[in-house]
Amino acid sequence: MAFAAASVLGIPIGTLIGEYAGWRSAFMALAASSALVVGLLVAIPRLRPERAIGVTVLATQLRSGAVTSGLLVTLLLVAAQFATYTYISPTAQSLMGIESMFVGPLLLGYGIAGIVGNFTIGMRGSSNVATTMVLISLALAVLMIAIATIAQHQIAAVLFVLGWGFAYGGVSVSLQTWMLRAAPEAAEAATSLWVCVFNFSIALGALIGGAAVDHISLASVHFVGAGLFMLAATVAALSRHVLRPRG
User: Distance (Å, rounded) from C-alpha 208 to C-alpha 28?
Assistant: First the structure.
């Protein structure tokens, strides 16, 4: 839950601090948070792994259909998210017509909606996580198309952004549930692969979004994101047979 909360609150809080106190203050807040993390690492007792995670263990997990499908959904969905969300500020100002002084509060609303989605979807979607990922991906695809086409109506634009935050808020917890369900006997190895793919997807998504903005248009990035979200929904739908619902 903490990972999911951080993923939806981090950028909005940083943007809000930068907007009202300057970008240096945002970096100072990041430095203070990092120092706190170091302190926690020193204070928290060490947890010994159940077993060593070597290349053989990781390769074994990659031969599991449930694990590889979860990693592919992660790759597509997170890349789609960061292809679009990387450009949320220019999108808000250029496509939605929102003044720069209101971008920070808008993103804070996105983050709060994400926290609500984190707990709501996390609690209700764990019994059938593949279907949950299909619904989340489809919802995000629809929202991307809406933002690219009718977001000039500001009330609608705000609702779209809040809906975006709510839907994406359930992504991290649902994907983590997927990996734990896919490899209950090797959770450390499976989640290690998942974290690797998740972080790679962030960079890949930003790269894809940048290429779309540079070579096509700002609005096109949302159509690209919608396409990736649709692919994620397709993979999740096709993977339901390898990831049995709980209960």
Answer: 30
